[in-house]
Amino acid sequence: MKSICPFHLAIPVNNLGKAEKFYGDILNCSKGRSSDYWIDFNFFGHQLVVHLDKKITKQSFNQVDGQHVPVPHFGVVLNWDEWLNVKERLRQVNVDFIIQPYIRFEGDIGEQATMFFLDPSGNALEFKAFKNINQLFAN
Prior knowledge:
By secondary structure, this protein is of the alpha+beta class. It has a single domain, classed as 2,3-Dihydroxybiphenyl 1,2-Dioxygenase, domain 1 (Roll), CATH 3.10.180. It has two helices and ten strands, in the order βαββββββαβββ.
């Protein structure tokens, strides 16, 4: 697989303190530059910037594999063991899952672990891992 360049994503949050605790303490993302209105995080090797916005709009949903998937959402593809560790850390701090951690396409091409949850501002995240990372884009 070709090496992947880090992405940059900027998202709205309605409380910087809660965002800092969630992304920093719960997800273990190190903090970079910041101001009174935004914070940079190392989001698993990618640049995530949370921007203060007290007028965040409501989320919509689509049906995917019988699940009520939030749109928009973002996340990261982890290795299998790291995904298991993050899942346990989220359970230990009682994060409410929108979609409980589960395995999709078990035993088939593209087998993957996935889970959906919200940050304190209502941004939806999906963390996933593939049994075989070379099947990331397989159909």
